[in-house]
Amino acid sequence: MKTFSEVYAALRRKNRGQYGLLAGCCFFSVLLITAYACMMRSPTILTILPEGGDSRKQVMMVFVLAVLGCAVFTTYAAGLFFRQKSRETGVFLALGATRGQLRRELGRELALIAFGSCAAGAVLGAPLAWGIWQLFRTFLVDSQEMPLSFDPQAYLLALAFAAYVVVMLFFLAARFIRRTNIIDIVQESHKSEPIREVRRWYGPVGILLAVLGAAAGYLMPSFFVRVLHWYAPGVVDAIFYLPALIGLYMILLHTVVNGWGGHKKRWKNIISTSMMKFQGRQTVRNMLVMTLLIGGAYFASFYAPMLSTSAENTYATRPIDYEYHWRADQNLPQRDEVQALADEANVEITSWAQQGAAVLGTDGMRQIETETGFGATYTTEYAEILNGATFFSESAYNALTGQHVDLQPGTCANVLDDEGGSGYISGGDVTHLTNMATGAEMDVTPAEPLWYTMLLGCYVLDDADYAVLSEGLTDLYREEYVFFNVADVENSYAFANALFNEIVDRSGPAVEVGDYYDDVEAELAARAGEPYEFSPEAAAASGLETIDYDDRDSSGFRNYWKYMPQFRILDQNDFVTTMAVFLMLFIFIAIVCFAAVIVIAFTRCMTIALVNARVYDDLRHLGAPNAYLFRSVRGQISRVFLVPSIVGTGLIWAFYMMIMYFNSDPYGFTSAELAGITSCAAMVAGVSVLLYVVYRITRRSVCRALHIHS
Length: 710
Hints:
The protein is α+β, with helices and mostly antiparallel strands. It has 27 helices and 12 strands. Strands 1, 2, 3, 4, 5, 6, 7, 8, 9, 10, 11 and 12 form a 12-stranded mixed beta sheet that branches. A hairpin with a 6-residue loop joins β6 (432-434) and β7. α12 crosses α26. The longest helix has 41 residues, at 54-94.
């Protein structure tokens, strides 16, 4: 070796593990973010997720967590890399090497690592996302909406993160080279990052802040809307989650420094506790990132079991096998035609109920929004005709449902679900009704709500009042409802599918609309000479789901067509296919986040082995038995790996239960939600077992690196 570059290259070959660790961390982070960004911005996904809906918000929230986690992860890996290079750099400076020489050599290395690993991660991110998606299609579910396409603009997000990684590496390198004290540089790798004294009250106070922050972050947006009449920007809502983040950090600090086992256990584990404390800053940061990623992963993974189990529970508890309805100006299958289809499919119809209903104008409070520089505010005003709703006479309602309702004249009952909830869907109480064809009006008094999920959102009137208000209605404002049962519903799928296609084929363009379309609102807009904001053309322009009879098997059509039938066997058998994109997207997100957690935890634990190797060697020479060394390693690894798993799982479970509780109207848990929660608990148990297995593998790897028998 005759040149400085040759000496530097020899040291690089000797310490290739350090370079591999940094390159691997950068590659994995960019790979993960690129795959996530490509999936999140895929036209396949954006077509399914409604604009401004909760699903998109959840996807974006977990993406932000993933970006923050990977940013902290790569920054930590870079810091560790420069700490490990400090000794050889200091020696070079002491032997007369110039900072310019070191800068050039280090710059070449970092350029190769940064651009090579980031480019590889960016290039392979889309194939990774596509490969996982194809596995879903092959082994789980496939549908006409599942073919995956990518938007090239998604790479802008990946390139932005890759640019951060490159800039961060060169910034840390420049700061590293600018160090002037050679002794400080030489001793850098031996310096610890101790945490200042952490009081015992950090633990309980942290738990309190985490609970208060989660509650405030979730409830304050509703407070702003309902009480202050203000739609606050997302940044304002996010501020209220900050106490939860601070509380989480305090919990992890307390766990690393003090533990939860009391003073006796603290002295028993003084070696592992002290080593954790003297490397505490980076340890706690990594644990915080892992905890957030675990929370995001579980939040995404709860979607599939909650949705599928709740839906299955809902389908199973329906009192009627088949329901369909239509606007009276449409020529849909009547009883004899349905019977003919049933005979062809060897299906026996055991009951049939058909009743008419009226669409009337209802009163209510209209919101008038005003855009401000900081969100939107709104005022309310009363309108005698606000929108339309479907009304049954009490006798028609009784014939369809089998209930025995007897309303007093002048009263009106709205229909809730089978558990008395979902009032926000029903439209609430009304006090003034209008016949849109004749102009006839009537004031009514709200009666006790009725419970029947299959007619959720409808209303019931006294027979005499219904006759008065429905007189003179045109077919535009009349509907027909059919309820019927079959002898063997489980073997009636072919019949259900044939009837569904017959209904769609015979529905005209006038009813090719989403459930957001309201005939009364459209009439009011026409009278005022204004365009209707929910017409098919306007809905498509504003990003709402458009309805197309040719896409009758798509999730958008099945979920949002205004006249979509409710066939138990059809909904059960086609549920996974209908909701495939939703389910697979959130499963993909969960897999990506859990993979990030495992890699971060494994890397951090192996770093502990690297940093503390000399300490464990000294303990061995001082006579410490293998059992004691193993217990010390286990104490460190368990805190790094298991504490974020336990804390992240516990906090996100509590947060999710809070969401479920307050999401119901009235507050509480419905039977469908309880069934979904049970499935989520089983999924948490399965993932916990998987994480524990990975923890054991990691512990064994660390012990092997430290020459400790496990």
